[in-house]
Amino acid sequence: DIQMTQSPYSLSASVGDKVTITCQASQDIKNYLNWYQQKPGKTPKLLIRAASKSEPGVPSRFSGSGSGTVFTFTITSLQPEDIAAYHCQQYENVPITFGQGTRLEIK
Amino acid sequence: EVQLVESGGVVVQPGGSLRLSCAASGFSFDDYSMHWVRQAPGRGLEWVSLIDWDSGNTYYADFVKGRFTISRDNNKNSLYLDMSSLRPEDTALYYCAKDKFYYGSDNYYDYAMDVWGQGTTVTVSS
Question: N or C end of chain A: which has fewer CB within 10 A?
Answer without folding.
Answer: C
